[in-house]
Structures are given as structure tokens and as C-alpha cells.
Amino acid sequence: MSYCRMSEGDVYMYPHIYGYIDCCGCRLSNQTDTIFYTRTDAIKHLELHIANGDIVPYRAIKRLKEEIEEIGDKV
């Protein structure tokens, strides 16, 4: 299940079946990587989106933080 979708804001981020988190169609792709192997890096990327004026639902960051607590940082 995705962390956030374009229908909820400006970002589509989801856990890929190949073991990483993907920021699909990322508007910041020329500034940063869009594939993350840790949840912390995915959170930092979402915060970068917010800093650039993109709408990111808070629940996406909240879910990533909860996953870190429950199952760890590595994807």
C-alpha cells in the first residue's frame, strides 16, 4: 500500500516489491534520488518535497515513523 498518492497531494511514494521505497514521477528527480533503502531517507525526501511547496499528507511521514519503530529503518 502506498504511503501517499497524487490524488492526496503532489507526491506518489510506495514500497516497491524489489525492496526499496520509490517516489514515483518525482518532481525533484533532478535534485535528488527517488529510490530509498531506508525509511529515514524516505522521510527526509518527503520533508524536501514539503520544503519545496509540495503537498504531502502528514500520515505518510507518520506511517514511515511507525514502521521504523515496529520493524526497523531498512526497507
Note down, in words, how this protein is organized.
The protein is α+β, with helices and mostly antiparallel strands and 75 residues long. It has one domain. Helix content is 36%, strand content 16%. It has a 3-stranded antiparallel beta sheet with strand order 1-2-3. The longest helix has 14 residues. The protein starts with 11 loop residues before the first strand and ends with a helix. The model has no long low-confidence stretch (mean pLDDT 96).
Structure characteristics:
single chain, 2 helices, alpha+beta, 75 residues
Describe the SSE topology:
Elements: E1 12-16, E2 20-24, E3 35-36, H1 39-51, H2 58-71
Antiparallel strand pairs: 1-2, 2-3
Ends: how far apart? 14 Å
* Morphology: globular
Largest sheet, described in full?
3 strands, antiparallel
> From the helix content, strand content and strand pairing, which structural class follows?
alpha+beta
How many helices? 2
Poorly predicted residue ranges: none
Helix content: 25-40%
Radius of gyration: 11 Å
β-sheet strand percentage: 15-25%
Mean pLDDT: 96
Q: What oligomerization state is this entry in?
A: single chain
Main sheet: strand order: 1-2-3
Whole-number tally of structural domains: 1
Strand tally, please? 3
Instruction: Give helix and strand order, one letter per element, not per position.
Output: EEEHH
